[in-house]
UniProtKB/TrEMBL annotation:
Originating species: Ideonella alba
Keyword terms: Signal
Domain of life: Bacteria
UniProt-recorded name of the protein: Copper chaperone PCu(A)C
Signal as UniProt keyword: yes
Signal peptide range: 1-28
Cross-referenced InterPro entries: LpqE-like, Lxx211020-like, PCuAC_sf
Length: 153
């Protein structure tokens, strides 16, 4: 089941990239707060990133990338008979003015095929792409702080 998922995310990311090349890219439609990534131990291949996102207008989170991971997906998590399960989220819509929280145990950015260990205190760069109803794509750069626990605010 790995391949179809990767294909889907990849083509979605590609679509976002292509759209970004033709439409004007608008910045700062989405603000990010409290971004952090869970630090890893040596040889760990995957980890999560978490943050609060607030959009100025209705958009859908369509794509996530990071230079430190081969595959980046947005996952949702839920409890199923006492077992924590997760899967790629099909759509992550953001309503204008409403903050959604990507957090441990809920929606999260899943970074897989990690290219290096993520040490506590490091910055983890992420690029998130959002598509609006008119098809325009905006991208934001996120610097998540790595740690083993969420940052205190
Ligand atoms: Cu996940």
């Amino acid at each position: 089941m790995g391949l179809p998922v990767a294909d889907r995310v990849l083509s979605r990311c590609l679509a976002a990239l292509l759209a970004a090349g033709t439409a004007s890219t608008v910045h700062a439609q989405v603000t990010v707060d409290g971004a952090w990534a869970r630090a890893t131990v040596p040889n760990q291949s995957a980890t999560g990133a978490f943050m609060r996102l607030t959009a100025q207008k209705d958009v859908v989170l369509t794509c996530a990338n990071s230079p430190v991971a081969g595959i980046v997906e947005v996952h949702e998590m839920w409890m199923d008979q006492g077992i924590m399960r997760m899967r790629p989220a099909d759509r992550v819509p953001l309503k204008a003015g409403q903050t959604i929280e990507l957090k441990s145990g809920g929606l999260h950015v899943m970074m897989m095929d990690l290219k290096k260990q993520i040490k506590a205190g490091e910055r983890v760069p992420l690029t998130l792409s959002f598509t609006a109803a008119d098809g325009s794509v905006s991208k934001i750069e996120v610097n998540a702080t790595a740690g083993f626990t969420p940052p205190t605010r």
